[in-house]
Description:
The structure holds 2 protein chains of 2 kinds.
Chain A lengths: L4 H10 L12 E7 L13 E8 L2 E4 L12 H11 L3 E7 L9 H11 L6 E4 L8 H13 L3 E5 L18 E6 L7 E5 L5 E4 L3 E4 L5 E5 L1 H18 L5 H11 L2 E4 L1
Parallel strand pairs in A: 1-4, 1-5, 2-4, 5-6, 6-7, 7-9, 8-12
Antiparallel strand pairs in A: 2-3, 8-9, 10-11
Helix pairs in contact in A: 2-5
Chain B lengths: L6 H6 L6 H16 L4 E8 L4 E9 L2 H8 L3 E3 L3 H9 L3 E3 L6 H8 L7 E9 L2 E10 L8 H32 L8 H17 L3 H19 L1
Antiparallel strand pairs in B: 1-2, 1-6, 2-3, 4-5, 5-6
Helix pairs in contact in B: 2-6
Amino acid sequence: MHPYAKPLLEILERGFDGLLKNALADVAVAVIDSGVDASHPALVGRVQQAYAIEGGNAVSTSLTGHNDARGHGTAVAHIVTQVAPNARIVDVRALSVDHQSNGDELVEALRHALTLPISVVNMSLVVRPKWRGPMTELCELAHRRNIAVVASAQNSPLGSRGLPAELASVISVDYHTMEGLYSVLYRQRNLVEFAAMGQGITAAEAGGGYTEVTGTSFATPVVSGLCALLRGVYPSLRPYELQSILKALAARHVES
Amino acid sequence: MAPSDDPLSSYLGLLPAQAEARVLRLLIDLGRRVVGADEGSLLVYDAERRVLVFAMTLGSEEAEAEARLKGQVVPLGEGRTGMAAEFRTVQVGAPAFHDIEFQQHKERGGSEPDIVLAAPMIWDDTLVGVITAVSFDSEKRFTQDDATVYEEFAGIAAFVVAQWQRLQLHEAASAVPDSLPADSSARAELELLQRVHRLVRRGPDTLRQVNSLLDAVEKMVGE
């Protein structure tokens, strides 16, 4: 029997949400974003490591404080934990408070994340093509290290799908109208192979309270959460096996 | 605001009366109507300062809104608008703190925009700007379909700007004769022009860099 046949058969039978009934091991999910407000009630105790990229280096930041100046990463992290109650967030802030960040910080953030004991990386962002070389190398490295990189597609109707989403070593995500968080759509012959719910998701707002969020940025952590859930039950699944299971479990397959 | 200070003119070389500028206005207006927004804006990207600059605003109280916002800057990464540019993905949601629309309205004692939709204008992997749609109706929600449609409008707007820039370059190239004069000084001058032309054809970032360099040279020569 193929190594992923057992989880595949089990999940086919029970669905993604059926996994929630299993004993789930903790899974570390790195959120490369604007930082996370670890003091938010929805995230208290969920952030296990926190870093900020400053001056080209990763420095440790507070595990209990408000580390999100832009309000994006907090919502992303909260969606990961909503889908996967076993997810432990590794906050890697790639955007500086003074708005002086550039693509170097994003590359450095991924480089740093890959040195940590993590299982999944969530990148709800697109890196400029200038950094194609290092991004390709790092995503390949993640693949070799058995770390699943999940990234948002760029929705430019007349252009490319963006980096790192368009790389073969990455699980790329777009948004689509879906029923609930435990459901994905598979796109046949599309560089961006998956789509998940990305509309009207209630998520934690940095500084307190909640907000409704919509966009590819917020569909991506849904898939990161599903990967964390799968690895919480079957830790040995490789990134390509995660992709195969996501494809097999997709609520719909479409040609696009 | 003097015409020369108009962001469309200073960043894209577009005068308000030009067809391309009118097409952009039409696109923003169509876009905001399609998604049911009270206001739609176009912000151009200033790569050197890493900010977005409000260039046009359409919708309710259009003239006032445009006068209020034109020239205002949003740093990359700030609010939904800055995040759309920084992360190159559409952003939808209640306005994050420091959104310029939020501040401006609050200062005027007006209602706060309840929801913002921001889509990056990207052409050939180059960020041109961002288009936004805002609503002041507390019941209003932008849907995923609204976001997708607005992204498509952003793509078309970016294409319009890119085509305009190409046309400009083409016209500049036509102005430089193919055969170089025998006179060594005139020949050197034309060779330099052609070199600059080749450089600026690489894209808006290079164009701005060449501009900055020429400013520095002018200052140096002036001294």
